[in-house]
Every structure is written in C-alpha cells, then in structure tokens.
Amino acid sequence: MTASDHSEMFAALCREVGFCLHEKGQARVLAALPNGLDAAVRAVLAAEGVDEPNAPGDLKRAVRDCLKANLPQA
Q1: For the chain, how big is the Rg over CA atoms in Å?
Q2: CA distance 24 to 31
Q3: Confidence of residue 70 (pLDDT cuts 50, 70, 90)
Q4: What is the pTM of this model?
Q5: Average pLDDT for residues 8-36, to the nearest whole number?
Q6: CB 46: neighbour CB atoms within 10 A?
Q7: Which end of the chain is more exposed for a tag (fewer CB within 10 A), N or C?
C-alpha cells in the first residue's frame, strides 16, 4: 500500500488531531504500520517532533484512535 492508499487516514489525522504530516513523515508511518498501531503512533509523534515518552496519554490515544478508525480496509 502507498501513501495515496492511506490519504484519507492522513487527512483525518490532520483534521482531527492537527498533525498534518509531510511526505517523509507519511512514509515513516507507513513503514511502521506493519509493526502495529503503537509503532505507527510513535512514527507520527516522531514525524511531528513530539517527544513520545513525555507526550500526554490523551494525545497518544487520539492519534491511535484516529489511525485505527481511518485505516484503509484491505
């Protein structure tokens, strides 16, 4: 799957959480997705420059819920 396959997921992430990832950030998330949602959340936070260990739980949960709800169905 490519970034275009996940365009709605990235649009929702921008709209709902305020993380509008650039192309490199999207590639990081796509590379992390096969390792699970938690890895993808870490990739989103890293792409946004957020220190993951110190990020609020609510933020991590919001990113995870958004990714999960908007993953393309295979």
Answers
A1: 11
A2: 11
A3: very high
A4: 0.91
A5: 96
A6: 15
A7: C
Residue 59 neighbours by CB under 8 Å, 6+ apart:
17, 45, 50
* H or E element that contains 22: none
pLDDT at 1 over 60: no
**Sign of the CA dihedral with 34 first, then 21, 47, and 67 last:** negative
CA distance 17 to 57: 13
State the Cα–Cα distance between residues 37 and 51, nearest whole angstrom: 17
Q: Which amino acid is at 29?
A: V
Q: 47: helix, coil or strand?
A: helix
Are the CB atoms for 67 and 40 separated by under 8 Å? yes
